[in-house]
User: Which sequence fits this backbone?
């Protein structure tokens, strides 16, 4: 536990009795299952999304294993039938998107960190927060039911009329599951939106919010504005499939392209639900681990909002070949680039933050650097897809698969892991072994690139996605990719081992191991049940002069002679 | 009723006069919409009906829902909903109109027939 | 790989010599391919340069400013409008160029020349059917070299997408409407034609070829395709129709059922029944004498009578098959009993 | 940005003495309300500092929720706009099956319930318990009335085989050209309207004075205007049921909420210092009303 002399104005981590920490203040199954504490809900979410990630990962490995060889001359695959393969990628995509990546950063890490970082006692609606978690569970149960009832083979995009008339799998339960998960996500969004507006302690103006909170704010805006449209789309599809209403089914005079408008009106903004919180974590980590004030705070904050809002105008870039009119395609293509600009701004701001810093290569920073590398590739390849002429060739090939794994895995997953390693000591009060954390990260990095880099080439050469088998010239790329996937598995297993070890044997974490200036580091690790007895003093969240290294606690403590600098 | 009674510390209290007045206006506008149907103005009819509906919606939002007295931010939030739904509907509509010809051409050759009981 | 940044912006058409295939692309076998590839290479170079800058700068900072004995961070400005505007405006300009190049390339892909010859395409789970102006039909696409071809496409069931990587063209095939694309092949040879919109079990084998032939050979080929029914013996002609209409997707010509992989009964069964004068049993418990009339109905309106044990997934061929084709097809099915 | 939410300080004086303690005393301190967890205003949850903050948070929360509701409905509005725009004949043809009188009745019922809901908030704000109970009960009554009318409408249609999707199987193939089996539609306003407009009649006897057989004959004459039935009529009913059904589900949801409010109101849990739930529920109810304000002309008054 850290101790220090108090300076007027600066806040000291209060010495709290052990029993006060949120993990120990009560015990028993019900104390978790019925908890309204955002921290416990965050931890439950964390366990839940990691389980989903593991399951989705297993499906991915099945895909990759099958693709090691093309089907033989009789059409038989290595160990899957075409139908099973189709179910694998559909469930892989649906689980990864709806159960893992969308709730990952906001609902797991965000839930835990956001109120503490803000200096609030809880989110605005704790009960709604718990509801959101249980809705996630119900959604997950629906997906499990889908697994029992013969899978899902529509792809995660549920395009009609295949999904409404032809598929023989459990489409309706899957749609219901995704519908419920949508509401789980909406509830998180509403909660965060209100918390950030109404629960800010005195002095915490909008432009003093840490960038992680800006990211969550922008995310919440998308969750509230876009997710309901997913809800109604899925509901209409349920009705279409069950009763044959005819809105999307051409056999009844409906329009399948309209369905795609409905789907992507949500699902494009949803990719920014996935990346914005990730970018926000990177802003925190890079500043802290470079020991530098973040560069261009306002530009970063505003670019998050810009991405969130512009992200609503570009959905049609998924539909350039769908039969959408050239007029609409042109509008969507032009606007697509307008969303890419704020992302570029962020990248350059992060770089400048590192300039003349004192860069600590801890595990979170290694992940942040990995993010920079992988997200740049993922984002830049998005430009090939946003360009109408080239997307015609690249659409629905492995080039797209590679693009979105680079942004979702290389981007969001890497940021998620950066955040997990960053806040782990705060969440569980334990330090982890830096060395094996970094080894895991590097193995995963190599495995990831080996998996998905070859896919760019086979994609631009014409390998279509969602293919159970393929023509021989693509074999070498597929084999590299499969080997990469197993390497990635090894890397992630090291990560999992490292984290479990830390729980079992880790050293006790100081209140502020990395020397960050945001408020969550002002309370003990793990935080007390009430977060803060008194609202903490709010200052510039990136003024790292506030703290200094204290060899006694092996952490940072508040500097006694600290005077807040006027500049920002 | 004296003004002192009409006060609440937390939020604005809508005066009875306003409530009844708004209600009266809403009923009047409903009658007006129904009446407007009997006048054939071609394509204008729909716009008149929607226009009246919008006036009604505004009345409800401003007075019953207190937006006229509320924090402006709540109004902005609500406007966002309308703007984004408008965006969604209008672009989807624009696109379907653009490719309508491809559908019509096809249907001219292959008329739609919906089997009974399907 | 050779690269001409300016040519990308001009989105040139047929003027330049096409390139051979490389790690990025198959050979440029249509008039539009080269221009589109140039746009790709333009974006590629912008990406490579900005990626290298980003990563080099990051690496340099990590090396120079990493934490070590005696090194301290230095205070620098926390914001700078000039810098930030620079890296807002430069990417904006580059992306504007990408958009316009891509837009022009797209228009080139969408506006078919007036004199293009039309070929009708019908997508079906999981078969392609091409119909030419002279009435010929084929399962592979046959086109002449050096002449624009316009494909007018529709689907009878779900979404498909016609993709010819060597031509850099792709367009979804949508039920209930027409979509179209055009190309002009500039190289003889055989190229892949993929279905790239997920369409169920055999999406990955909904593959066929494009054969690009010299004009004369092309004319001869479609002539042969047009009147094979008159020329060939009925059973042989029927076999061709059988393959062309996608029946093989769901039916074996033995007695073996394809139920497991989402298909229908082996057609030798019904052939045997016809030969023996037997009855076919249906899902609703009824049965009917298996004869030509029954086979005919099974093809035209398959859902009228559903063979017991099978789902009603066969698509109706009413209006999609000519009397002649039907006649030889029935002959062929009857011949399967032997 | 607006002022920080914490400045407001003092909670409204509640009517019961029991509520007067705790937070208010600290109103003018810099960190108003902090550090007194021991004696908190029982109406304010632990993580809020003041009743005002709690109310504001709830209010923004409910507005954000209404945003999601609007976007949720927007999907159906989108489908409607596109179908109506591309297939106007279908809409013109099929909407005659809807009964404008019932639709208008329901509009008035809902508007009235909106008035009582708004009034309920006022009563709660002013500590008028009796008024509050009355207003909530009236709102509930209207909600049931609305559903009752909807039930009548739905059951008439279903009786004629006009369901949605696969259940769209009009019993009588010539349904639209004749009196419907329930005698409900074409003998109603629609035929009479046209007949009046065009002075239709038999042997100089105007339509209105004809017996049923005569009316039937006129309906027969009007047939060609309706025939052949546009193929996609059933999708109109799909949209009709979809929109009114989803709206109906929201009415049912509203009923549950208002029952809960009524119970709490009877227990005297609302007062000038704590009436958030009444306000939030009323906002929701007004939105349900707003949706109907559009649905009514869109579905019933097509020209
Ligand atoms: C985390 C999720 C995520 C993110 C952040 C993005 C970001 C982007 N995406 Fe991606 N995308 C997906 C997830 C994501 N995407 C998914 C899941 C799909 C497929 C769904 C499916 O079909 O199943 C998809 C598909 C997809 C398509 C459709 C392809 C097709 O099907 O044909 C397109 C087309 O425009 C596209 C474009 C873009 C663009 C322009 C960005 C931009 O926002 C990227 C901006 C970033 C940068 C530009 C890089 C960083 C900047 C620099 C390094 C500075 C230097 C830059 C310059 C000088 C230019 N994406
Ligand atoms: C977040 C989203 C996400 C993630 C993380 C992944 C991860 C992976 N994906 Fe996936 N993928 C999608 C989203 C995602 N994917 C989507 C949306 C599609 C489109 C589906 C469609 O077409 O409908 C798709 C499609 C897709 C395809 C294309 C299939 C086809 O078109 O035929 C392939 C093929 O290689 C693939 C592979 C992989 C691999 C190898 C991984 C690997 O990265 C997986 C690695 C994970 C593991 C191996 C699990 C190990 C985990 C642990 C050991 C626990 C770890 C614990 C801690 C870290 C604490 N994916
Ligand atoms: Cu046809 Cu995929
Ligand atoms: Cu997108």
Assistant:
């Amino acid at each position: 536990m850290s101790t220090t002399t108090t300076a007027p104005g600066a806040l000291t981590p209060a010495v709290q009795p052990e029993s006060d920490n949120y993990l120990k203040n009560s015990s028993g199954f019900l104390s978790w299952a019925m908890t309204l504490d955002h921290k416990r809900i965050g931890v439950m979410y964390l366990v839940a999304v990691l389980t989903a990630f593991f399951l989705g990962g297993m499906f991915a490995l099945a895909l990759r294993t099958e693709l090691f060889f093309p089907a033989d001359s009789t059409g038989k695959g290595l160990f899957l039938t075409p139908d099973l393969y189709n179910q694998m990628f559909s469930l892989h995509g649906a689980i990864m998107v709806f159960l893992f990546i969308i709730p990952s950063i906001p609902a797991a890490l965000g839930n835990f960190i956001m109120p503490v970082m803000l200096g609030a006692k809880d989110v605005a609606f704790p009960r709604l927060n718990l509801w959101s978690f249980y809705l996630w569970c119900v959604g997950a149960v629906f997906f499990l039911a889908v697994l029992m009832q013969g899978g899902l083979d529509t792809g995660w995009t549920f395009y009609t009329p295949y999904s409404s008339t032809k598929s023989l799998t459990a489409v309706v339960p899957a749609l219901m599951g995704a519908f419920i998960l949508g509401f789980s996500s909406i509830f998180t969004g509403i909660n965060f939106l209100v918390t950030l507006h109404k629960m800010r302690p005195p002095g915490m103006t909008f432009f003093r919010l840490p960038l992680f909170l800006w990211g969550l704010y922008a995310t919440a805006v998308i969750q509230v504005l876009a997710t309901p449209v997913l809800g109604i789309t899925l509901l209409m599809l349920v009705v279409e499939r069950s009763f044959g209403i005819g809105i999307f089914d051409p056999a009844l005079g409906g329009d399948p392209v309209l369905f795609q408008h409905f789907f992507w009106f949500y699902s494009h903004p949803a990719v920014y639900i996935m990346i914005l919180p990730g970018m926000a974590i990177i802003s925190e980590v890079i500043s802290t681990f470079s020991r530098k004030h973040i560069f261009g705070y306002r530009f970063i904050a505003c670019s998050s909002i810009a991405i969130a809002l512009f992200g609503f105008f570009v959905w049609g870039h998924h539909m350039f070949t769908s039969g959408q009119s050239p007029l609409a395609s042109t509008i969507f293509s032009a606007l697509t680039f307008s969303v890419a600009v704020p992302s570029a701004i962020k990248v350059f701001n992060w770089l400048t933050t590192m300039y003349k810093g004192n860069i600590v290569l801890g595990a979170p920073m290694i992940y942040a650097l990995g993010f920079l590398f992988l997200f740049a590739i993922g984002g830049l390849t998005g430009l090939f897809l946003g360009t109408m002429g080239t997307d015609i060739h690249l659409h629905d090939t492995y080039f797209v698969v590679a693009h979105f794994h680079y942004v979702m895995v290389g981007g969001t997953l890497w940021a998620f892991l950066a955040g997990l390693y960053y806040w782990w000591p705060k969440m569980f009060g334990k330090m982890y072994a830096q060395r094996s954390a970094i080894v895991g990260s590097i193995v995963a990095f190599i495995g990831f690139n080996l998996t998905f880099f070859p896919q760019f080439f086979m994609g631009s050469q014409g390998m279509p996605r969602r293919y159970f088998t393929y023509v021989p010239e693509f074999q070498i790329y597929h084999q590299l990719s499969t080997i990469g996937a197993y390497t990635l598995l090894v890397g992630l297993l090291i990560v999992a081992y490292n984290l479990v070890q830390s729980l079992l044997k880790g050293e006790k974490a100081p209140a502020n191991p990395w020397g960050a200036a945001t408020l969550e580091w002002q309370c003990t690790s793990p935080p007390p049940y009430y977060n803060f007895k008194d609202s903490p003093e709010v200052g510039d969240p990136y003024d790292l002069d506030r703290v200094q290294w204290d060899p006694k606690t092996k952490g940072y403590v508040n500097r006694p002679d600290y005077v807040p600098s006027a500049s920002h | 009723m004296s003004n002192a009674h009409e006060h609440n510390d937390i939020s604005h209290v809508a005066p009875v006069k306003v409530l009844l007045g708004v209600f009266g206006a809403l009923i009047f506008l409903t009658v007006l919409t129904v009446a407007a149907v009997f006048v054939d103005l071609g394509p204008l009819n729909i716009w008149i009906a929607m226009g009246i509906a919008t006036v009604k919606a505004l009345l409800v939002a401003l007075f019953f829902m207190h937006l006229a007295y509320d924090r402006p931010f709540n109004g902005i939030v609500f406007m966002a909903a309308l703007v984004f739904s408008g965006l969604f509907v209008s672009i989807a509509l624009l696109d379907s109109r653009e490719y309508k010809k491809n559908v019509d051409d096809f249907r001219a050759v292959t008329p739609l027939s919906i089997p009974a009981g399907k | 790989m050779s690269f001409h940044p300016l040519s990308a912006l001009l989105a040139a058409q047929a003027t330049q010599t096409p390139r051979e295939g490389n790690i990025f692309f198959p050979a440029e076998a249509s008039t539009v391919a080269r221009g589109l590839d140039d746009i790709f290479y333009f974006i590629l170079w912008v990406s490579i340069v900005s990626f290298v800058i980003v990563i080099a700068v990051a690496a340099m900072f990590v090396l120079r400013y990493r934490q070590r004995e005696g090194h301290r961070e230095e205070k620098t400005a926390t914001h700078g409008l000039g810098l930030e505007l620079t890296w807002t405006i430069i990417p904006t300009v580059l992306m504007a160029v990408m958009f316009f190049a891509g837009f022009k390339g797209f228009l080139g892909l969408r506006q078919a020349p007036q004199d293009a010859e039309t070929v009708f395409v019908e997508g079906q789970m999981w078969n392609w059917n091409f119909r030419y102006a002279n009435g010929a039909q084929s399962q592979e696409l046959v086109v002449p070299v050096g002449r624009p071809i316009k494909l007018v496409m529709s689907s009878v069931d779900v979404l498909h997408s016609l993709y010819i990587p060597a031509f850099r063209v792709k367009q979804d095939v949508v039920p209930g409407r027409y979509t179209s694309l055009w190309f002009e092949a500039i190289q003889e040879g055989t190229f892949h034609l993929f279905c790239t919109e997920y369409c169920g079990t055999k999406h990955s084998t909904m593959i066929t070829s494009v054969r690009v032939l010299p004009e004369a050979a092309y004319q001869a080929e479609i002539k042969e395709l047009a009147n094979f029914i008159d020329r060939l013996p009925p059973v042989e002609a029927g076999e061709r129709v059988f393959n062309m209409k996608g029946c093989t997707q769901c039916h074996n010509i033995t007695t073996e059922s394809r139920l497991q992989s989402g298909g229908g009964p082996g057609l030798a069964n019904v052939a045997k029944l016809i030969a023996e004068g037997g009855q076919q049993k249906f899902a609703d418990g009824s049965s009917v004498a298996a004869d030509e009339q029954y086979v005919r109905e099974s093809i035209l309106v398959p859902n009228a009578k559903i063979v017991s044990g099978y789902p009603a997934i066969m698509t109706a061929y009413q209006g999609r098959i000519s009397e002649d084709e039907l006649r030889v097809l029935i002959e062929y099915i009857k011949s399967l009993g032997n | 940005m607006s002022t920080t939410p914490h400045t407001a300080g003092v909670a409204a004086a509640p009517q019961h003495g029991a509520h007067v303690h705790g937070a208010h005393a600290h109103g003018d301190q810099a960190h108003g309300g902090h550090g007194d967890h021991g004696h908190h205003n029982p109406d304010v949850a632990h993580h809020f500092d003041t009743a005002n903050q709690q109310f504001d948070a709830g209010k923004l929360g409910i507005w954000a929720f209404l945003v999601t509701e609007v976007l949720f409905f927007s999907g159906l509005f989108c489908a409607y706009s596109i179908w109506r725009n591309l297939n106007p004949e279908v809409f013109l043809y099929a909407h005659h099956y809807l009964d404008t009188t019932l639709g208008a009745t329901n509009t008035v019922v809902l508007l009235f319930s909106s008035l009582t809901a708004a009034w309920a908030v006022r009563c709660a704000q002013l500590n008028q318990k009796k008024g509050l109970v009355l207003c909530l009960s009236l709102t509930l009554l209207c909600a049931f009335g609305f559903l009752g009318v909807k039930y009548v409408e739905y059951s008439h249609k279903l009786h004629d085989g006009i369901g949605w999707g696969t259940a769209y199987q009009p019993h009588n193939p010539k349904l639209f050209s004749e009196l419907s089996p329930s005698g409900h539609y074409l003998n109603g306003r629609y035929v009479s309207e046209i007949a009046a407009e065009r002075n239709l009649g038999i042997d100089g006897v105007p339509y209105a004075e004809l017996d049923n057989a005569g009316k039937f004959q006129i309906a027969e004459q009007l047939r060609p205007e309706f025939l052949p039935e546009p193929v996609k009529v059933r999708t109109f009913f799909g949209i009709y049921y979809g929109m009114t059904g989803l709206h109906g589900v929201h009415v049912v949801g509203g009923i549950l909420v208002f029952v809960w409010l009524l119970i709490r109101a009877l227990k005297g849990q609302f007062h000038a210092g704590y009436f958030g739930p009444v306000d939030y529920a009323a906002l929701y109810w007004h939105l349900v009303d707003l949706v109907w304000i559009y649905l009514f002309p869109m579905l019933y008054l097509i020209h």
